[in-house]
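Entry 14. Ran structure prediction on the chain below.
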Amino acid sequence: MSGLSRIMEEPPFRLLSYFLLKRFAKSTATIDRWGTVDRPHYFAGVLAAAKQAMSEGVPEISVFEFGVAGGNGLVALQECAETIEGETGVKIRVYGFDTGEGLPELSGDFRDHPDHWLPGDYRMDVPKLQRRLKPRTSLVLGRIAATLPEFVASSPPPTGFIACDVDLYSSTKDVLQLLSLPGRRMLRRVPMYFDDVDFIFNHRFAGELLAIEEFNRENPLIKIDRWRGVRKDRVFVTQSWLDRMYVAHDLGAINATSLARAASDACSLDEVGA
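Output, structure tokens:
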């Protein structure tokens, strides 16, 4: 790190540096390090996904927002995708899944937090949002349990990043099928953002946290864990979104890669011996 960079990150100058960089920063590394976008958690997840795709030789990925509501997050996600695609060369398709009608009727099951959510919360103005979307972005309307299997069957580019903001335990269970349905395609490591894991009403026996725990129990070769080291090399390390970042690890793909590498190494040794 240069002397100027160190000075910029010192507390007396940090906020001034942030606002200057928010206006002028172009490099994805700088934007990510300083979080100079409206949704730094989306930018961090998509950038990490693009880098993972590059390491795997994957030319195109899909990124998702589940729970679109008014659409500001989906628009931010497509802006992140445009910037990151421009620098990395990895093509990025953006998908938003939502009922369009707000939260569904609640069963009263405590796992869906009926003490906090109300049916109809976060209703969408569909025509208004559609006008804000670019060709790279698709809006998928309907109950996720119904729309996601058909979507996966259409063989979209591998999943690279998932933002989950569907609030309910039951809906989060539906979202996580993206990582387990037959025919699903994903990177070996998929960054994820869960919006409802650190409020006072959240606990591991309901909501998104329970859905994650059950997914891990039911899927032996795909595991969701906290994003270890997500604070590393970031300037503002106390921001709350950092505690909402996770990674889905495809352990089966990692095993397959290790076996292929071992076989390749064995062939190389055979050739040397010959």
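The beta strands are 60-66, 91-98, 137-141, 159-164, 189-194, 222-226, 245-250. Will compare against last week's run tomorrow.
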